Amino acid sequence: MIKHIVMWTLKDEAAGAGRADNARKMKDMLEALAGLVPCLSKIEVGIDVFAASPACDVLLYSEFATRADLDAYQVHPEHQKVVAFVKQVAASRSVVDYEI
């Protein structure tokens, strides 16, 4: 099993909205992938509620049966729609993939 974790810090203002609104939109868009991308086994999306330091505004946790499934997810057209939005609103991104 492959676990895919991504953390983003968002711009204060982007795509005509503030950080909090964009975080909620990202969460909704990412969670909607659960029904659209068949190789996606599990997805959880969280928005920072405690203003942790160092800051991260949105976190994605997802699981895939194989590396090939993760690769298919990355290029899936529905995922690419989310990526296009995220690129507009994210100031930074960190990612880790690991296998268990």
Please describe what this structure looks like.
- Helix content is 36%, strand content 36%.
- It has a single domain, classed as Alpha-Beta Plaits (2-Layer Sandwich), CATH 3.30.70.
- The strands form two sheets. Strands 4-5-1-6 form a four-stranded antiparallel beta sheet. A two-stranded antiparallel sheet has the order 2-3.
- β2 (13-14) and β3 (17-18) form a beta hairpin.
- With 100 residues, it is α+β, with helices and mostly antiparallel strands.
- It starts with a strand and ends with a strand.
- The protein contains three helices and six strands.
- The model has no long low-confidence stretch (mean pLDDT 96).
Largest sheet: 4 strands, antiparallel
In spatial order, strands of the major sheet run 4-5-1-6
What overall geometry do the principal axes of the alpha carbons give? globular
Q: Count the helices. How many?
A: 3
Task: Give helix and strand order, one letter per element, not per position.
Answer: EEEHEEHHE
Beta-strand share of residues: 35-45%
- Structural category: alpha+beta
Mean of the pLDDT scores?
A: 96
Model regions low in confidence, pLDDT < 50 over at least 5 residues: none
